[in-house]
Design goal:
This protein is mostly beta strands. It has one helix and 39 strands. The chain has two domains: 289 residues, Tachylectin-2, Chain A (5 Propeller); 191 residues, Jelly Rolls. A hairpin with a 6-residue loop joins β15 and β16.
Amino acid sequence: MDKWTADLGNGRYKNPILYTDYSDPDAIRVGDDYYMTASSFCNTPALPILHSKDLVNWEIIGYALENIPEERYKDPIHGCGVWAPAIRYHNDKFYIFFPMPDEGIYVTTAKDPRGEWSKPVRIFKGAGWIDPCPFWDDDGRCYMVSAYARSRIGFKSILRLTELSPDCTKIIDMGRDIFDGNINHQVTIEGPKLYKRNGYYYIFAPAGGVKTGWQTVLRSKSVWGPYEYKNVMLQGDTDINGPHQGAWVDTVTGEDWFLHFQDVYAAGRIVHLQPMRWKDDWPIIGESRGEYGVPVSEYKKPNVGAEYPVTSIPTSDKFNGEKLGLQWQFNANHENNWYEMTGEGIKLFAVNKEKERCICDVKNLLLQKWAFPEFIADTRIELGNMKNGDIAGMVHLGVKFAAVYVEKNESSFAVKLKRGSQTFVKEEASASEETVYISEYNGREIFFRNTVKPCGKGEEGETLWETSLYYSDNGDTFNEVCSFTAEAGRWVGVKHGVFCAHEGEGEGGFATVKSFIYKI
């Protein structure tokens, strides 16, 4: 079965609802439809748009950004780019606010979330403001709550409120800081989402850190505060660490629910759904422990007034459509002439690559997120149109990275391995790799395989995954090339996929990827 299925088919669901790295999710209900978006960092297309009818079964319907604003993203800048967004609906228009921690805060809008989104408008220029969320009050005035990134501005754990023009095109009052987590036992408070209920303004915000924190809620009778706070969801005695950053949504039947992520290291930040109830005008998220809740691993499905079929995020791909599947992203801002859909495969053109550039920094890697806790992924690539100096193969991309590939030289091919690691110092990335010759190769097509399986627990109790890369000349018998313990990327889970690049003189050719198939 080529999917992770959260819907148990008996009126209940299991967490995570998405075993996929949709970091920093935010969601809204519009009528009986739910829409979600998430961080995408330097990968494009960016700002995924997901849709659901019942909060359990989700599908990806598009992206809000074809490419990331600013010229520097023509090459991968790991950990930078599009951070935690917020999606809202107001006056028949969808809004997504998204931060770029080095550049500022941007807004894009759409009438139809499945259609074209507007060119982003930068409403704040500067570094360090992150996690923006808009809010329109009953009098029509618009506000934005946001947080700070210490790596860019020198401090953190503080929330700020500013006033915007009602159309969200500009800041009209720079506002002030409204909550200091450094003096309120809420260190690293971030990711704020602003709501209003029963005369109270609520700010839902995680604190304590991505892997070890909890969910905090602030409330006040004035949007400007002062705010009191409670910790409303903790890990408790569960194995769902974090639980971190998300969205409060309701149903047409009056139920309240909360979406958040759990950081599971190499597999990324996967999405959970929690029941939510109110007590004395404070929310309790998850299974009640009195004044707070803990995450549930299984629960009854939300009552949305109807039953809907099971859906899932696409994974396997035979590349036989007219458009590239929505599960795929490139490693940086992309150009449409990097590939061509043929109806019987995808031509990956050999984009020029400096020979000394590490494989993790190749811009035209075609990648997708892990979607299962354990799997085999096989790809088949035709080689007949490659030219001297072309390389094509399968890549595993995390802080530790590796690629098994073929290199075209004159009338022959060689199977090779590139492997290495990335290092980050004060947000500056560097990488080193080695190239290993494996064997000569004489076929006209080649098969590659990536296997991923849990292999124990780390020092912090986290799941460890062993990842292995193979090649084959027939798709049945595979030769192992390398195996190692996977490590997450910079703020992201491991991605994997295919590529074709050109390291030689002159122009490159292309490789045709016929399929990318998961087995679980």
